[in-house]
Amino acid sequence: MKTKEITIAGKQVNLSYCYATEIGFTDIAETSLDKIDTSNPKHIIALIMASILAYYQSKGEESPIKDNELMFNAEPEEITTAFVSVLELRMDWYKLPVGEPQNEAPDEEKEDPEKNA
Q1: How many CB atoms lie within 10 A of CB 45?
Q2: Which of 6, 12, 42, 80 is deepest in the core (most CB within 10 A)?
Q3: What is the pLDDT of residue 43?
């Protein structure tokens, strides 16, 4: 399980990513995580809540925040930060690379200025 603490809707909460997050998202959003629609607010809230619930359920504790608090009390920037944080935790969980590796080797197709002198 990968975890991160954030503040959202005025509350400190922990996010986590593990299989419970994926199962929770599927239960809440009624679709699999590979079909997440980032333009659908229900999917965004569902992923954040699934991540929060997975953390607190693993500890045998109640979640300090409910979905209606996210929908009514969280600022848009907080929702965005939470959503991105869950995606980052997912990348870390699956050990996904952040981006394409940069090629540090010189480009062989470029002409050597001394070669043509």
Answers
A1: 20
A2: 6
A3: 97
Phi, psi of 61 (to 5 degrees): -120, 160
95-114 burial, b at 16+ Cβ within 10 Å, e below that, comes to eeeeeeeeeeeeeeeeeeee
Domain ranges of the chain: 2-94
Distance between CA atoms of 97 and 92, rounded to whole angstroms?
8
| pLDDT tens digits for range 59-98 | 999 999 999 999 999 999 999 999 999 999 999 999 988 6
**If we measure between CA atoms, which residue out of 115, 3, 88, 104 comes closest to residue 54?**
3
CA pair distance 45, 61, nearest whole angstrom: 20
Contact criterion met (CB below 8 Å) for 15 and 89: yes
Distance CA 7, CA 3 (A): 14
